[in-house]
Automatic annotation (TrEMBL):
Lineage: superkingdom: Bacteria
Start and end residues of each Flagellar hook-associated protein 2 C-terminal domain: 359-623
Function: Required for morphogenesis and for the elongation of the flagellar filament by facilitating polymerization of the flagellin monomers at the tip of growing filament. Forms a capping structure, which prevents flagellin subunits (transported through the central channel of the flagellum) from leaking out without polymerization at the distal end.
Domain Flagellar hook-associated protein 2 N-terminal: 12-108
Localization per record: Bacterial flagellum; Periplasm; Periplasmic flagellum
Main location (coarse class): other
Protein name: Flagellar hook-associated protein 2
Organism whose genome encodes this protein: Leptospira yanagawae
Length: 640
């Protein structure tokens, strides 16, 4: 009787090799799950890039449709380079203006006389005035270096001090105002003689008294002021009355009273003296001439003791005062005894010894009209919507040019087109299909051990886009093309209705049809610059317009594009977020299966080894029995 043997043993195979092969066959589902996870992770990366590109296009589109989009930004320049620079808003009127720069604004520069470099200045204080500001320097005493540092620390906002060494024994101190303009010239008060010892000023004089002028008010010439607010001003029973004691104002009345033309000096103010009861705050005003017309300033002022103080010089320095506006918003009558114009003397009581450069105002002529300003920079109150800086005096009139600045709008549109093309190219790449590739999504069931996962499937997937056939991306591509090629309502005359009107197209006439079908946008830079220069508002309206005049942008390339992109980038329920979440859940599920199957393989391998051990033991016994029987049968036959 032949002995029982296993096939593996008959062929000389090791039992451990057989167990390994059986375990490897059992491991096939893990390979499939790992391959699926690898594919899912690549898809997650792709969806992440889709989100980045859609977000970038969304950002560039919002920049185009926002109210601050600089399509109509205008720039300022001069026919002679370097004379003037600046910016202009949408409100500025394009055109050319005759411009002359007569004199530049300058800082006040002073110089002292030579003094001993090792001089020790005494302790004390001095005051520096510049424009409406003043700073008092408390000096503890010391040398020139300590003196310069004290000015820097306590009056650095008004002036700068420098020390120049003439030789080893002598030095000079120079002072320069921080601000330009006549009003900002430096003035000094030197009661302790510190500035004199420093060689900067002469003797300190006694402060001169203020000049006071009582204004002559003729009540018979008074006219009602602001009737909608002060309704009783025209009633006969409540009209203003005037006696030797002063002017009486009834409640809820206000009047403007003309006066002889009087110049308002710097730091000048009105003192309004009131008799008897009066409110803590009263509204007071003035009329003055400015640039050929009469202006009014009317504001609340606070009472100090029995007087109200109105800072006229802060509002109308060097202007001609033509009238006073009195009012009474209280519930009881007010008696105004007098209105006095007070003009303080110049605050400086010590004259500088040497003036290196006078403080000067900027003097310019625009269209023949002379204008003065304190500064050369940031001049925004001369021409509507324009802020400019002046850089040098002109020898002859030049041309001030105000024109549309197409550079910013052109750059915005180029960035938008680039973002659009990047998204379009990437979307087409990830959804492309290999025409000769045979793609099948059919998978073997997880418990099938008959065959391994088809490598053809993954090979063909690598030849095609990883999101081939993904409807959401295909829909995005189609929507982008439709939006870029659609017509939109023109809300303004000579408006634009399609992107090709402003030089943006999928290809010029006669271009390759396949390239046109790709849907990538191209810019005709010359045409775009032309339309941005001639009709910037029309370009902006093509991207975002309000056809219903309801203050809501509802039409345009940009508005429609934002509507398309919104579902892809919503944080919680967006298309990309949902796709990534499903893929991550799939990876997590596969990882769980892999972990469970790994545990199963350990047990499976152990059982196989145990079974093969039993089989080997059985085979061994069978061999022994077979050998015994053969030996006994042989002896028996020999004995016969």
């Amino acid at each position: 009787m032949p002995a029982y043997t296993m096939p593996g043993l008959m062929t000389g195979q090791n039992t451990n090799d057989i167990v390994k092969k059986l375990v490897e066959l059992e491991r096939r589902p893990i390979k499939r799950w790992e391959t699926e996870n690898e594919y899912a992770k690549m898809q997650i990366q792709i969806w992440g890039e889709v989100k980045n590109l859609t977000t970038n296009l969304q950002t560039k589109t919002r920049a185009l449709v926002s109210f601050t989009a600089p399509f109509a930004t205008k720039s300022v320049s001069s026919s002679v380079e370097g004379v003037i620079t600046g910016e202009a808003s949408r409100a500025a009127k394009s055109g050319n203006r005759a411009l002359e720069i007569i004199e530049m604004a300058s800082k006040h520069q002073l110089s002292g006389v030579e003094i001993d470099t090792d001089i020790r200045l005494p302790e004390g204080s001095f005051t520096i005035y510049s424009g409406k500001s003043k700073e008092t320097v408390t000096f503890p005493g010391g040398g020139l270096s300590e003196f310069s540092n004290a000015i820097k620390n306590m009056a650095g906002s008004l002036m700068e001090a420098s020390i120049i060494k003439i030789d080893k024994d002598s030095s000079i101190i120079t002072l320069t105002s921080v601000k330009t303009g006549k009003k900002n010239q430096l003035q000094f008060s030197d009661p302790n003689g510190i500035l004199k010892l420093a060689g900067l000023v002469g003797e300190n004089k006694t402060q001169a008294e203020d000049t006071k002028q009582i204004l002559s008010l003729d009540g018979t010439k008074a006219k009602a002021w602001d009737l909608p607010k002060f309704k009783k001003s025209e009633l006969e029973t409540d009209k203003l009355t005037q006696t030797e004691e002063g002017i009486f104002l009834k409640p809820d009345t206000a009047y403007t009273i003309p006066i002889a033309v009087t110049e308002i000096k710097e730091r000048a103010f009105f003192e309004v003296e009131v008799v008897g009861e009066a409110p803590a705050v009263m509204e007071l005003g003035m009329s003055f001439e400015k640039e050929g017309s009469v202006r009014n300033k009317f504001l609340p002022i606070t009472k100090t003791e029995s007087k109200y103080v109105f800072q006229a010089g802060d509002l109308a320095t060097d202007k001609n005062l033509t009238g006073i506006i009195l009012s009474n918003a209280a519930t009881t009558p007010i008696q105004i005894k007098s209105v006095t114009l007070v003009t303080p003397e110049a605050p400086g009581t010590a004259e500088p010894l040497k003036v290196l450069q006078e403080a000067k105002d900027l003097k310019i002529k625009i269209d023949g009209v002379e204008i003065t300003r304190e500064t050369n920079e940031g001049i925004a109150d001369v021409l509507e919507g324009i802020s400019f800086n002046v850089h040098k005096v002109t020898e002859e009139p030049v041309t001030l040019k105000i024109h549309v600045d197409h550079a910013k709008g052109s750059a915005l549109i180029k960035e938008w087109v680039d973002a659009y093309n990047e998204l379009m190219k990437f979307s087409k790449e990830i959804t492309s299909v290999e025409k000769n590739g045979k793609i099948s999504d059919k998978k073997e069931s997880d418990d099938s051990k008959a065959t391994d996962i088809s490598r053809d499937f993954w090979d063909n997937k690598s030849k095609s886009g990883l999101l081939a056939g993904e409807n959401s991306i295909l829909r995005l591509i189609a929507s982008l093309k439709t939006t870029a090629n659609s017509y939109y309502p023109a809300t303004k005359e000579n408006g634009f209705r399609v992107l090709t009107d402003i030089g943006i197209s999928t290809g010029a006439v006669g271009s390759n049809w396949e390239k046109i079908q790709d849907g990538l946008l191209q810019i005709d830079q010359e045409k775009l610059i032309s339309v941005l220069s001639e009709n910037p508002d029309g370009v902006r309206d093509l991207f975002a317009s309000d056809p219903n005049n309801d203050a809501k942008m509802e039409e345009g390339v940009g508005i429609k594009l934002l509507e398309i992109l919104k579902p892809y980038n919503q944080y919680a329920s967006g298309i990309v977020t949902s796709k990534v979440k499903l893929l991550e859940e799939s990876v997590a599920g596969n990882n769980k299966k892999i972990k469970e199957h790994e545990s199963h393989l350990i047990s499976f391998e152990s059982k196989l080894k145990q079974r093969f051990l039993y089989m080997e033991q059985g085979v061994g016994k069978n061999k022994s029995v077979g050998n015994y029987l053969q030996n006994n049968m042989f002896r028996g036959n020999g004995g016969e």
